[in-house]
Amino acid sequence: MNFLIIMIITIFFAGFCENLLHQKRIQKIPIRIHVNGTRGKSTTTRLIAAILREAGYRVLAKTTGTSPRIILENGEEITIKRKGSANIIEQKYFIKNAVKRKCNAVVLESMAVHPETQWISEHKLIKSTIGIITNVREDHQDVYGPSLKDAADALKMTVPENSYLVSAEKKYISTFQEQAKKLNSYYIQVNPDKINLKDISKSENFFFKDNVALALQVGKILNIDESVCLKGILTTKPDPGALSIYKIKKDGKEIWFINAFAANDRQSILLIWRKIKQILPKKINSSTKIAILNHRDDRVSRTLQFDKILSQELTFNHVFLVGPNSQLSKRKLVHFGYPTAQITIVNKQENVEQIINNIIGQIKLNAAVYGIGNTKGFGLEIIDYLKVNGEKI
């Protein structure tokens, strides 16, 4: 019994000392930016890090999107390889590494989901000097709760104390404003409509104004000249899951493939649908439209949401279903009124090349193909295929 008591005391003391050391490390990094929200976290993290690099900061950044990355001070990237599942304790080791590298700024994408871990991540592990909440959209409803208000209440757990909170969310301004006031933080609501993106239109990223507005506001808080911010934005390397368009020519036919796998909620996919219409040539906009819906076995609710969107809100001539839950997805599509003849379940043995050939065989001349649902698994395989065989637009 005495041995057990000694062990408990030892573990408690070791934890206390480690926490004390971590808090000292945090104070050695004067600029700490914590990026949270439903969509756009990875891109916003990258944009802010690029601006800080351009402004001369020694900045280390971390994204947890499609392919988790550490972005070094010179912009080079290291893929994070995990032995197990993701854990917010990673943030502590990231801070330790940043101090070791003598960084004076860090930008971290939130990797917490549960409200409790969101709070711990901000108030124990990061203690940001600038907090970001990109938006509130439908995702992780199994954790947050059924409503968007539940999601907002979870996300507000990362509002920093005695600091800044910047957000592009329009519906739940009062939720974040009240939390910021409670924690003595200054709340800033950005207005993306006031941004002119003509100066960065040649960037390889298809930027969403919300993300750019958030990054520019961070630059403003840090007194970085806007011209410097725009230069940084131009150097930003897109996240592997970011919206992108590739053109494929085969057998005298042309496919424009829209990689929208990362847009896995209703509001995001509808926003992309409208945005892409402004980008695609007229001949492609008026051509056959095909969706490749990539499923995950742990995202059944997302599958059902997309089935409804494809049946009732977007117009596709054909839908290819890939991955787990494809049979369930087909039943729901038919239930919502989508024609059975226009649905194809992709065989597990089929590769990307075979699917592309199948699509080529179905179209007359041109087609716009949208990859949606989820990036992981087959989505990444398609993206890798496009990088090699397609022409990036």
Describe this structure in words.
By secondary structure, the protein is α/β, with parallel strands linked by helices. The chain folds into two domains: 20-235, UDP-N-acetylmuramoyl-L-alanine:D-glutamate ligase, CATH 3.40.1190; 244-392, Mur ligase, C-terminal domain (Protein-Tyrosine Phosphatase, Chain A), CATH 3.90.190. The protein is built from 15 helices and 15 strands. The chain has helices at 2-27, 41-54, 90-100, 115-126, 141-144, 148-155, 173-182, 209-221, 226-235, 266-279, 282-285, 300-312, 326-335, 352-362, 378-389; strands at 31-36, 59-63, 69-71, 77-79, 105-109, 130-133, 164-167, 186-189, 244-250, 253-259, 288-294, 318-322, 343-345, 366-372, 391-392. The strands form two sheets. The chain has an eight-stranded mixed beta sheet, sandwiched between helices.
